[in-house]
């Protein structure tokens, strides 16, 4: 027998602990004795009497799990060890909050049960363990759930509806986690919607402002037309099977004279020279501002052979190193090289725009042009690309945005395009209107970013947003990870996190939604500039705490926030009006290292949890946001150890998907179904032990895997 050296006041507590550490009871086979021997043994050996059932029927497992959960035995174990070991060594396991949306799924099971293994193994070794479960309660998915019922509703009403959805999910998920035998502070979990959490988050945010890390700018961001908001890189998922229409499009060059070039074409004919571009976002063609080239490269002038007998010679400028690639793209259509020109001679030339024909646009040399694909002449739309925007900034150009928050062309684009969705009918209309200058179109399958919540494609769009300057933090973040253990088992995954943090662009932290933590900011009435300050955010944080209400920014008039100290910090006499952007949910959960504590510990020195344990996908999410905010505010990592586990796949190695029909509900494992015997919480926990912690890759589940688990459960 395995004994647990724990001083325990009640036998029931030890029984509960034993049941949850081990997946099923351990029974010793009965030896065969004669009747006399049994009687004799009974008289000479003290054996405790018990009502313990030797075998639990499959149909009874779910009911018994529920009974244990409702009696709160996991709570009593947690409370007991906190109290009894008050003076002992304490280990803190920080909970990465699951999203308060929907029911518990197998991904939750892996995560929470693995954490429970850590908690119970440490308790069994005599340690005092602090594990406060939490929930990430804000964000778009909750708001989307209530969208159908929000027409005509005020912001306060929408927030109240969203709060009800979040709290309902918290209750349902908590019940599942407790049924699975997970031990923790269930009496007082942390919720990112609570006034205490929001107040602490706002105070931390004011410190980020005070350190000069928060700024507002017009920048290109990933924009979700389906959500109507900006997204951070961590809120994207890339689909490898996205289909676009790739277009080879020509722009007529104005001031590159054929007579100045050495051409093999007949000089007696008129010549027209075009810059040949290639794009997979044809909806941006009417928004074109420039053509980017590489001035250090040589460019060729090509003529398609099937046009050689035309009365007017049409020549196309393409980069010489890409001739072979272009020939492959156009095959079987062939072309001939009729001349060459240095890239530096093209820099500064002009061409005719495809939308407003009376405007000339520049050909410019830019470092982002490569010779890997395309034509070497890069269509550049300042408002719809990161490199494109950089070209505008270098030239000091004003950037106009002619696509609205729903991904539709605005009135400035004229009657033909106004109101059309750029990713839908807008693209078709553009191809129709500009067909004269389309040289070739081809279907193109490639990796493309999607909104991870709505599962719809995003666009790049310039908009005014709030950012955190991650470049100022990346070096500190890398250094802080030197002492942190990161990985699964013996594998060291530190380089993965370092690579992502150091390559991360500025963090866009504002969202154009109602349900979230506000970014307290104001604009002067009649002006466009939006501003904030340390003093304004502190004022709001204090009011949230004093009123015990996270909605005060929406409820109270602006004058209650603008005292003389705040007015002076804003540098303007006003009058002001409130701005209602909310914070990125990754900033909410990313500040859990300080906000999830029961008391304000901002002055208690460095706050580091001993361990965090999340899925491998959190390298792009919570691991980063926690690290960046902690480095910004306390110059160290928020954790000492990062244990990484895999994500759930079916037994054929496919990602769980409702459309495939391979999603496994944990309830079918614990309670059974038509095709599956009930394995109870022990069966679910055994599956996690066998498959959930194998690696930081795949944790497989499906009919075949569950049959193997069932054999072991017995």
From TrEMBL:
UniProt-listed Enzyme Commission number(s): 6.1.1.5
UniProt entry keywords in alphabetical sequence: Aminoacyl-tRNA synthetase, ATP-binding, Ligase, Nucleotide-binding, Protein biosynthesis
Gene Ontology CC annotation, any one: mitochondrion
Protein's GO biological process: isoleucyl-tRNA aminoacylation; mitochondrial translation
Enzyme type, top EC level: ligase
Coiled coil: none
Gene3D superfamilies the UniProt entry points to: HUPs, Valyl/Leucyl/Isoleucyl-tRNA synthetase, editing domain
UniProt cross-references to PANTHER family, sorted A to Z: ISOLEUCINE--TRNA LIGASE, MITOCHONDRIAL (PTHR42765:SF1), SOLEUCYL-TRNA SYNTHETASE (PTHR42765)
Record-given protein name: isoleucine--tRNA ligase
